Amino acid sequence: MFTRRYRSALVAALALAARPSLVAAETPAQQATGNAIVIHPVTVTKIRDMDFGYLTVIGGAGTAVLEPDTDTFSTTGGVSPVGGSPQCAEFVGAAQGSAVVNIKIPTQPSTLTRVGGTETMTVSKFTLQGQSRRALAKADSFTFRVGGTLDVAANQVEGLYVGTFDVTVQYP
Amino acid sequence: MSKFLTRAGAAAALALTSAPAFAVSPATQATASAKIFKPLTISFVQNLDFGTIVLSGAGSWSGQVVSMSQAGAVTCGSGNVTCSGSPQPAKYHLVGTNNAVVTISSPGFNLTGPGTLAFTPNAPATVNLGATGATTGVDFAIGGSITLASTTADGVYSGTFAVTADYQ
Fold this sequence. Notes:
The complex is a heterodimer. Chain A is built from one helix and twelve strands, in the order H-E-E-E-E-E-E-E-E-E-E-E-E. Chain A is mainly β. In chain A, strand 3 and strand 4 (72-83) form a beta hairpin. The radius of gyration of chain A is 27 Å and the shape is globular. Chain A starts with a helix and ends with a strand. Chain B is mainly β. Chain B has one domain. Chain B is 10% helix and 42% strand. Chain B contains one helix and 13 strands; from the N terminus they run H-E-E-E-E-E-E-E-E-E-E-E-E-E. Chain B has one helix at residues 2-18; strands at 41-46, 48-54, 64-68, 74-76, 82-84, 90-95, 101-105, 109-112, 116-122, 126-128, 138-148, 155-160, 164-167. In chain B, the strands form three sheets. In chain B, strands 1, 3, 4, 6, 8, 9 and 11 form a seven-stranded antiparallel β-sheet that branches. Residues 1-19 of chain B have low confidence and may be disordered. At the A-B interface, helix 1, strand 1 and strand 2 of A face strand 1, strand 2, strand 6, strand 9 and strand 11 of B.
């Protein structure tokens, strides 16, 4: 009988070992992220940069266009997208008290310069998501996207081009 | 030679016939059992988002806790912060053995950006996979909390969960 009892204990141990829980905890292939946007009133903060993604030029000049109302991307002429994650710039602001604020985007082209070189491209025709004037309640936050049109020459030198542009929010 | 063999045979017979006299049974017999589990899988469903938090309090202040329940309801400090946007809890999906209980682990981590915000997750300790745990599975959500001060820098803060699941 002792032999049998020992055999039972062995079976139980095997059953425990077979439980997935004792092998390893399961980890998802992709973890979730936690995100928060924090802002003081009467300021404006960038949430994300403008990005035209990866482009190629075949058969002539063209443009790449980011449209802020729908956050969509398109190209014209000899320019074609070949990857990346094109996206409009996005900003957030907040009012102190109830107020009407005025958002200003560039009216002049901004220059992008090739990293490690001197070649340039320009972004022009900046466009704003929604109205430039926003009526806000006290401590109310607001976000807005900004798009634009990138002009790409037929013989544009390949590389990464980077530039900056300014937006302004007028608070009363 | 043949005499020795006979004697040996008799001794063996004696041992066999004497064995039943000592056999006993316990009042309760031991049982052998094994439960087979379907491999547990956990997958990402959605990110947690506090939305936009405006540091609306005047002057210098600290210790304002913004917390999100597992249902996604945000409790936004006590006067110095204002929450807006479309907050949502993190969500994962579990598939495994029907009606099995799964233990969830979600250690704390930092949200980083222009500064660092310690994030304390609010995850269920266990999840029951229910009657369709092996087929459709179940989702579970994780909320959490951060603590803000008037000195918290403006910007986008983000961090990554380290969730694991295990049969209980």
